[in-house]
Design brief:
- Its main location: membrane.
- Keywords: Cell membrane, Membrane, Transmembrane, Transmembrane helix, Transport.
- Residues 69-278 form the ABC transmembrane type-1 domain.
- The chain has 288 residues and is mainly alpha-helical.
- It has 14 helices and 2 strands, in the order H-E-E-H-H-H-H-H-H-H-H-H-H-H-H-H.
- A hairpin with a 4-residue loop joins strand 1 and strand 2.
- Helix 2 (54-61) crosses helix 14 (257-282) and helix 3 (65-94) packs across helix 13.
Length: 288
């Protein structure tokens, strides 16, 4: 059992890391809060003083605010449905004995290690280009007119690109969970004559509930801040401007740091609301 002296020594040794971590998080947050109450235009006069809640009012009453929130939630929801659905399917397939199983698993997981910017460029130029893209050639092969994906189906395109990046993560977590499933339960159900679908529905899926919860929470946190894929592909046009991209436009394009900082505070509030909602709905699975 740890003594009072050893616990004090442990706290002392951990203190520098904790202080550094708190500083890393708190300093940017405090600066954002400070700028959100100021009119700060770097190229048009600099710090013009305090304006109170004017930036918050301007940002939330902007015609672009609510569409950006809806676009953000739509992308997050679409990516979660695809990655969890196909992640379960891929995890089950990868758990089956096959030749070259290790190589196949590496190939499936590989897209997760590709930078978002590179991934978006590959999809934009290699797959979704309306003239020379692989999807355009496929459409012509079947006698259909090629689709200009990034303008005619922009939201679908963003969801596809982001899903391709995050599917390996979901597959890896779910595969690990499937491998921990007691095979005797499945064998007993099979001997009792339970069909494959019912074995999946009543044994495999409940066992995956905690893993699905983890995937849901982690992906949601990161997807709420999606930016690079939109910047590289649509530039926020065609209804794909998320809240993060709107903040970018206000800070860098409009050179209004105060207005962008207010948007950053709104983004933090949105992220916390979504996180609390998810924890209330599915967080109980973590304690099961």
């Amino acid at each position: 059992m740890a003594t009072q002296h050893s616990r004090s020594a442990a706290r002392l040794m951990m203190a520098p890391a904790v202080i550094l971590l708190l500083g890393w998080m708190l300093v940017p947050l405090i600066m954002t809060l400070t700028f959100s109450f100021k009119k700060y235009l770097p190229l048009r006069g600099g710090d013009l003083g305090w304006v109170g809640f004017e930036n918050y009012t301007r940002f939330v009453t902007s015609s672009a605010f609510w569409p950006s929130v809806v676009a953000t939630l739509a992308i997050v929801g679409g990516v979660l449905v695809i990655t969890i659905g196909f992640g379960i399917l891929l995890a089950i397939l990868l758990n089956q004995p096959m030749w070259g199983q290790g190589i196949v698993r590496i190939l499936v997981i590989a897209p997760f290690f590709v930078m978002p910017t590179v991934s978006a460029l590959v999809w934009k130029n290699m797959f979704m280009d309306p003239t020379n893209g692989l999807l355009s050639h496929l459409w012509r092969f079947f006698g259909a007119e090629p689709v200009s994906w990034l303008s005619e189906a922009s939201m679908t395109s963003i969801v596809m690109i982001v899903s391709w990046q995050w599917l390996p993560f979901a597959t890896l977590i779910l595969l690990t969970a499937i491998q921990s499933l007691d095979s005797e339960q499945l064998e007993a159900a099979e001997m009792d004559g339970a069909p494959t679908f019912k074995r999946f529905l009543y044994i495999t899926l409940p066992h995956l509930s905690r893993a699905i919860t983890i995937v849901l929470l982690i992906q949601t946190i990161f997807l709420l801040a999606i930016f690079a894929e939109i910047f590289v592909t649509t530039g926020g046009a065609f209804g794909t401007r998320t809240l993060t991209y709107l903040i970018f436009q206000r800070v860098l394009e409009a050179q209004n740091v105060g207005l962008g900082s207010a948007g950053g505070v709104y983004a933090i509030i949105l992220a916390n609301i979504v996180a609390i909602f998810l924890m209330r709905i599915v967080g109980k699975n973590l304690d099961a």
